[in-house]
C-alpha cells in the first residue's frame, strides 16, 4: 500500500523563487495494478520517484506498507525471503525517515535500462541485487542464474550488458530489481524505448507479477490493463478512476488546443 | 553506449589468469608496477613489455584490442617520449613510455580476466579488519568496482560525443567534444547513483 499525505515537491526556479513540481497530493493506493498517465513534464515521474524515496517530498509525507508477496521471482530468492522475513513487512514506512527500508521493499524500473544496469555482465548485475541475501559467492551465483533462467535470460549470463538489445536490457533491468524480492514495483515508462513486440512482452511481464505494480506510461493500452488509473497534469492528479474512464478523460484533455 | 576499449571490460574465459584469485592478481600487478618503475632501463622495459603483452594475450585480448589501446596511448606517448628524450636522451624516453604502456597492458589483462564481482569480494575481504575503525568494506569495494566499470562507459560516451560532433561538422572543435563529454559523464555518475539508490545497493 502506498499513501501520499499532502505530499508536495518544489524546486528552485532560478530566480530565487520556487516552482511546484507536484502540488500537495493525498492518495492511498491499495490496488494491485495502478497506472499513471499524463503529458511530458506533467509530474508523473516525480510522483513515481516519491514512492521509493528517490525524490523526497518538500512537504507532506509518503508512506509505504509492504505486504508479503504471493509467489517469488526465483525459488532461490523465495527460500531466502521465507527464512529471513523482513521485520519491516506490514509496517508503515516513511520514505524519508526509513529510506533504506523503503527501497528494500519498493523496486524501481527506469525508462532507460542502460541507466539501471550497474555491473558489466548480465549475471553480475543480477548478483548485485542478491548480495544482501546471499553472502556466499557460489550460492549467490547459483541464485542469480536461477533468476536469469526464470526470465529466459540464462543464455545471456556472461554477455556484456552493453551488447544486449533494448528489449533484453529492459528485461534484465526488471529481473535485477525483482531478484531482490520487492513487495511493490514502480516502473517509470518501462516500454517507452521499446518496439511493439518488446513493449508488449515487458507489459505482459509487469502485469503478471505477484507484486503491487505502479506503471507510469504513455502506452494507453497498457494503462487500461490496470485496476486504477491516475491522470497527472501540471503537477496535479486531475483524474483518478477506473482505467477506461481515466484514459477517455486523458484523450479528451490531450485533444484540447 | 558501446565498449570501445578492452581497458576495464571483463572478457569471460578459462585462462590461467581467469582462474587466479583476484587478490593474487592485484598483488602481482602491484609488484610488477613497482619493479618496472624501480628498474626503468631499456632492457628491463623490453622485458616488462614482453610480460605485459603475454599477460594481455593470455587474458584474451587480441591484436585488435592491443592496437586500440596503443592508438589511444599514442598522443601521450609521443609527447612524453619527445620531452623525456629532449631532457634526458632517447633511452629515458623509451623506458618511461615503455614502462607506462606495459602498466596499461598489465592493468588491461587484470580487468579482462577478473569479473568485477570477484574484485568486490576481494576488496571487501581485504578491508574486513578495518571494519572496527568504522570502514564499511562493502561500500569501498562497491566504489572500487564502479570506478573500474566507469572506464569503458566513459570511453563509450567519448566515442558517441566524437561521432555527434563529427555529424555536425565540429570534429575539430575542442568545445564540441569536451563540454558534452564532461556533462554526459557527470550525468552518467548521477544516473548510476540513482540506480544504486533505487536498488537499495550500498544501504545495507
Could you give a short description of this structure?
The complex is a heterodimer of chains A (257) and B (204). Chain A is an alpha/beta fold.
Secondary structure elements and their pairing?
The complex is a heterodimer of chains A (257) and B (204).
Chain A: E1 2-12, E2 18-29, E3 33-38, H1 44-50, E4 59-65, H2 75-83, E5 92-94, H3 99-105, E6 106-109, H4 113-116, H5 122-130, H6 137-150, H7 166-178, E7 184-188, H8 196-207, E8 212-216, H9 220-223, E9 228-233, E10 236-241, H10 243-255
Parallel strand pairs in A: 3-8, 3-9, 6-7, 7-8
Antiparallel strand pairs in A: 1-2, 1-4, 4-5, 9-10
Helix pairs in contact in A: 5-6, 5-7
Chain B: H1 16-19, H2 22-39, H3 42-59, H4 63-88, H5 90-113, H6 116-126, H7 137-167, H8 174-198
Largest sheet of chain B: none
Number of helical elements of chain B: 8
Q: CATH fold name of chain A, please?
A: Rossmann fold
Low-confidence stretches of chain B: 1-5
Order of helices and strands of chain A: EEEHEHEHEHHHHEHEHEEH
- The fraction of residues assigned to DSSP E strands of chain A is 25-35%
Protein described:
The complex is a heterodimer of chains A (257) and B (204). Chain A is of the alpha/beta class and 257 residues long. Chain A has a single domain, classed as Rossmann fold. In chain A, 36% of the residues lie in helices and 25% in strands. In chain A, strands 6-7-8-3-9-10 form a six-stranded mixed β-sheet, with helices on both faces. In chain A, strands 2-1-4-5 form a four-stranded antiparallel β-sheet. In chain A, strand 9 (228-233) and strand 10 (236-241) form a beta hairpin. In chain A, helix 5 packs across helix 6 (137-150) and helix 5 (122-130) runs parallel beside helix 7. Chain B is an all-alpha fold. Chain B folds into two domains: 1-114, no CATH class; 115-204, no CATH class. The longest helix of chain B is centred in the C-terminal third of the chain and has 31 residues, at 137-167. Chain B has helices spanning 16-19, 22-39, 42-59, 63-88, 90-113, 116-126, 137-167, 174-198. The radius of gyration of chain B is 19 Å and the shape is globular. The chains are: A alpha/beta (257), B mainly alpha (204). The interface between A and B is medium-sized, with 31 and 29 residues.
Amino acid at each position: 500500500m502506498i499513501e501520499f499525505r499532502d505530499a508536495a515537491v518544489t524546486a528552485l526556479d532560478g530566480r530565487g523563487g520556487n516552482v511546484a513540481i507536484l502540488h500537495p497530493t493525498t492518495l492511498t493506493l491499495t490496488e494491485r495494478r495502478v497506472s499513471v498517465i499524463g503529458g511530458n513534464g506533467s509530474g508523473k515521474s516525480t510522483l513515481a520517484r516519491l514512492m521509493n524515496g528517490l525524490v523526497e517530498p518538500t512537504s507532506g509525507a509518503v508512506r509505504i506498507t509492504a505486504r508479503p508477496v504471493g509467489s517469488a521471482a526465483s525459488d532461490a530468492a523465495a527460500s531466502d525471503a521465507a527464512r529471513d522475513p523482513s521485520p519491516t513487512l506490514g509496517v508503515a514506512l516513511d520514505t524519508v525517515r526509513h529510506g533504506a527500508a523503503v527501497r528494500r521493499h519498493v523496486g524501481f524500473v527506469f525508462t532507460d535500462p542502460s541507466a539501471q544496469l550497474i555491473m558489466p555482465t548480465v549475471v553480475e548485475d543480477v548478483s548485485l541485487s542478491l548480495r544482501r541475501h546471499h553472502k556466499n559467492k557460489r550460492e549467490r551465483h547459483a541464485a542469480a542464474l536461477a533468476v536469469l533462467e526464470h526470465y529466459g535470460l540464462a543464455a545471456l549470463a556472461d554477455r556484456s550488458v552493453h551488447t544486449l538489445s533494448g528489449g533484453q536490457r529492459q528485461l534484465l533491468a526488471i529481473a535485477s530489481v525483482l531478484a531482490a524480492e520487492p513487495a511493490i514495483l514502480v516502473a517509470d515508462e518501462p516500454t517507452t524505448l521499446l518496439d511493439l513486440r518488446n513493449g508488449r512482452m515487458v507489459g505482459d511481464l509487469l502485469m503478471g507479477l505477484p507484486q503491487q505494480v505502479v506503471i507510469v506510461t504513455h502506452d494507453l493500452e497498457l494503462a487500461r490493463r490496470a485496476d486504477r488509473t491516475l491522470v497527472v497534469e501540471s503537477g496535479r492528479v486531475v483524474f483518478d478512476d477506473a482505467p477506461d474512464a481515466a484514459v477517455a478523460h486523458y484523450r479528451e484533455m490531450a485533444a484540447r488546443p | 553506449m558501446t565498449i570501445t576499449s578492452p581497458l576495464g571490460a571483463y572478457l569471460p574465459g578459462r585462462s590461467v589468469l581467469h582462474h587466479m584469485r583476484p587478490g593474487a592478481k592485484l598483488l602481482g600487478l602491484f609488484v610488477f608496477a613497482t619493479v618496472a618503475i624501480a628498474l626503468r632501463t631499456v632492457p628491463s622495459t623490453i622485458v616488462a613489455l614482453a610480460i605485459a603483452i603475454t599477460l594481455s594475450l593470455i587474458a584474451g585480448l587480441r591484436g585488435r584490442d592491443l592496437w586500440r589501446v596503443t592508438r589511444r596511448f599514442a598522443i601521450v606517448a609521443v609527447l612524453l617520449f619527445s620531452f623525456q628524450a629532449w631532457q634526458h636522451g632517447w633511452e629515458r624516453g623509451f623506458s618511461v613510455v615503455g614502462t607506462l604502456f606495459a602498466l596499461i597492458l598489465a592493468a588491461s589483462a587484470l580487468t579482462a580476466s577478473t569479473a568485477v564481482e570477484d574484485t568486490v569480494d576481494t576488496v571487501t575481504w581485504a578491508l574486513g579488519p578495518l571494519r572496527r575503525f568504522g570502514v564499511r568494506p562493502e561500500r569501498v569495494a562497491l566504489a572500487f568496482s564502479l570506478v573500474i566499470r566507469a572506464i569503458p562507459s566513459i570511453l563509450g560516451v567519448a566515442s558517441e560525443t566524437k561521432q555527434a560532433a563529427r555529424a555536425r561538422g565540429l570534429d575539430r572543435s575542442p568545445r564540441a567534444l569536451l563540454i558534452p563529454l564532461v556533462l554526459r559523464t557527470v550525468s552518467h555518475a548521477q544516473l548510476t547513483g540513482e540506480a544504486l539508490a533505487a536498488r537499495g545497493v550500498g544501504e545495507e
